[in-house]
Amino acid sequence: MSGRIAKWSVKLSAYDLVYEPRAAINSQALADFVTDFSSDIQQEANWKVQQLDQDKGKWILFTNGASSQGVGLGIILKSSQGGIIPQAIKCDFQATNNEAEYEALILGLQLSKDLEVKIIHVFMDSLLLANHFNGSYAVRSEKLTEYMHIVKNLAEKSDSFIIEQVPREENAEADALANLGSTFRIPTKIKIPIIHILNPTTYMPSLDEKEIIREVAKQDPQVNEVAATENVVGQDPQINQ
Q1: pLDDT band at 172; cut points 50, 70, 90
Q2: Which domain holds residue 132?
Q3: Phi, psi of 135 (to 5 degrees)
Q4: pLDDT winner (highest mean) among 31-45, 55-69, 144-158
Q5: Is 171 exposed, middle or buried (0-12, 13-18, 19+ CB in 10 A)?
Q6: How many whole angstroms separate alpha carbon 55 and alpha carbon 39?
Q7: Cβ-contact 195, 238 below 8 angstroms
Q8: Are residues 128 and 207 in the same domain?
Q9: How many domains does the chain contain in total?
């Protein structure tokens, strides 16, 4: 994924979008589209891309690795503008828990590098890895030494880079994504929607609440009136394995 496309994915992560391969397009249809494309829209699009390119604020990266039933990695990258990129990754190779932690960190840093992030603060619950990087613990394993070499090379690409160890409960989201990648056995192309339920199924909305839901459904095509009335209020962007 190119850096510019990845930056747009941050902005679009709040929407339930499904991307499909582009089919062949009739040349005349393409010509008509180009003709109809307003110069004002082009200027606005260029301005939006410029804003993304100039994002020099601090980004936050949460990572975690799990190897309980398989190897899974969890990554949550948060931009300085509030965008979020969550990733649950399943690894088709064996690794120890410490190796999985390194894999998650490296993939998170590679994603940051693709986005041209210059200021990044990493949070993880692995005390060993954080102290390896900060120099408090010596790296004794040959394989972990190789991992640390990659981490330091990626860190040098940033203007400011910090790794901080946090309690597990403060890294719960990345931990959940890592466990999902570790334990779930599904085909590669299957997508997993996360559905938010506002109330328990025993809850009965009042007539006023039902009327509000209907009005919201009319104004927002993404809201399904029937689902909303039954307390299902929406879906998060789908997480890919």
Answers
A1: very high
A2: 1-185
A3: 90, 5
A4: 144-158
A5: buried
A6: 25
A7: no
A8: no
A9: 2
